[in-house]
Amino acid sequence: MADFNSLFYLFLLFSFSIFTSGSEAEAKDAPFVGINIGTDVSNLLSPEELITFLQSQKISHIRLFDSNADILKALSHTKIRVIISVPNNQLIAIGSSNTTAATWIQRNVVAFYPQTLITSISVGDEVFTTNPSSAPILLPAIESLYNSLVASNLHNDIKISTPHAASIILDTFPPSQAFFNQTLTPFLLPLLQFLSRTKAPLMMNFYPYYVFMQNKGVVPLDNSLFRPLTPSKEMVDPNTLLHYSNVLDAMIDAAYFSMKNLNVSDVVVLVTESGWPSIGDSKEPYATIDNADTYNSNLIKHVFDRSGTPLHPELTSSVYIYELFNEDLRANPVSEANWGLFYGNSTPVYLLHVSGTGTFLGNDTTNQTYCVVMDDVDSKTLQAALDWACGPGRANCSEIQPGENCYQPNDVKHHASYAFDSYYQKQDRASGSCDFKGVAMITTTDPSQGSCIFPGSKMLGTNKTSAVGTATNTTTSSGGVGHLLRRRRTPTVQWYDLVILLVVLAWI
Predict the structure, then answer these.
(1) Which of 24, 26, 49, 126 is catalytic?
(2) CA-to-CA distance for 137 and 108, rounded, in angstroms?
């Protein structure tokens, strides 16, 4: 019979093995938010300064539009994972010569890996739509590069794919009726079969901003920005009866249905670009700091909610935000130079608001949401909700009385927003406490104006700062790009855990 100390030690070992295996699986499978880094920037940070900045912002996944050797060298021995790219102008040379492909892999991958954590290679960019004459050479280039990875025994660690524009998918809503542009089938089908065989993702550049701009009056702004919606405002696919509360999920599911139409069902979608511009010209009035803040903040929270899509609630795509810096050297339109979260000198363009999701882009210090009135609400219903909040709801409505700081503007919408936020904050922002029969919504934008400070802002006190940020939970996944779309699961007991348990039982 074993003594108590030995049994206790084995019990701890068993418990630790379950805990660590579960934790490792969770970290490996977690979705993440990455950042695209363009370099058309005046006075761009040096590679060393860039990496220091990325680390200070807790950014662990980036995508480059080339294979800049200085940046790859600076990334050495960091935990930052990088997608490198083959520019479109190199496709013909690589696709026409196995030797050229092998040289490219040696020079841009083998020379840096594994000290630099290269997770994948994106070959070309939106080739089918921006460089269609290169379409026939795209897959040969990809296969040549893949064969060179095989020769270096790196094909299981580094995945190869190519990013596509959303326009290769036609009739994107409802998603169940979406299909790829049939003129591309001779190129797309063998490409998808390659991705399936190598367990690489379908890379898609999805911009709800452009969907909204091209369909104003049809696609609501709230749906494009991930704003909370009442069920009546959700988009419904009449064929599947699936409800879509945001445009991005609909675009992702449209890609899945399009692949299904080509009998491909085991390739995951990776969103290699998504974002919202903060400045535009007169033709782009919705390119504003507030909308960019709202979109990117809500996008980040959406990824880390791990809610998947209506078609695949068990799956969540990782997303690369476009982009880290405003590329001020880009040509018109004005918005082209204003997609960044930061200016080239690393100062923030705006403050992102993401609560409760970690330390990614770690300067988000607001950690705050507010409850306000939704647009286009019936005034009678709104008045009834206001009366309930200030009465049975016991919200603090003293500040909206005549002569007080929040009395003006003297209208039911403003007063109700203040009362709703008071009740919401009093309930510790609990789920369901910002509804009021469908007339209220949660926002990350502070509704305070002038001397009227909303309850949610009063709670922040002196903790508010002017620093930039987003907050998302990053991971140090080593699974490569083939694992960027993750399946949610709880920690499981592995075979070696059972062996330990059997040893314990035999000892007893």
Answers:
(1) 126
(2) 21
Do residues 303 and 31 touch, judged by C-beta distance below 8 A?
yes
Let me know if 126 is a catalytic residue. yes
CA distances, 427 to each of 99, 159, 365 (Å): 65, 47, 21
Stated pTM of the model:
0.70
- 361-412 pLDDT tens trace: 654 444 567 899 988 888 899 999 999 999 999 999 999 999 999 999 999 9
DSSP code per residue over 233-282: GSEE-TTT--EESSHHHHHHHHHHHHHHHTT--S--EEEEEE---S---T
Distance, in Å, from the CA atom of 82 to the CA atom of 71, rounded to the nearest integer, reads 10
Number of Cβ within 10 Å of residue 417's Cβ equals 23
Of 316, 346, 301, 335, the residue nearest 468 (C-alpha) = 346
Quickly count: other Cβ atoms within 10 Å of residue 231's Cβ.
9
Which of the following is catalytic: 48, 49, 234, 273? Answer: 273
User: Catalytic: 323?
Assistant: no
Task: Cite the beta strand spans of 322-461 per DSSP E.
Answer: 370-373, 440-443
Strand blocks (E) in 357-432:
370-373
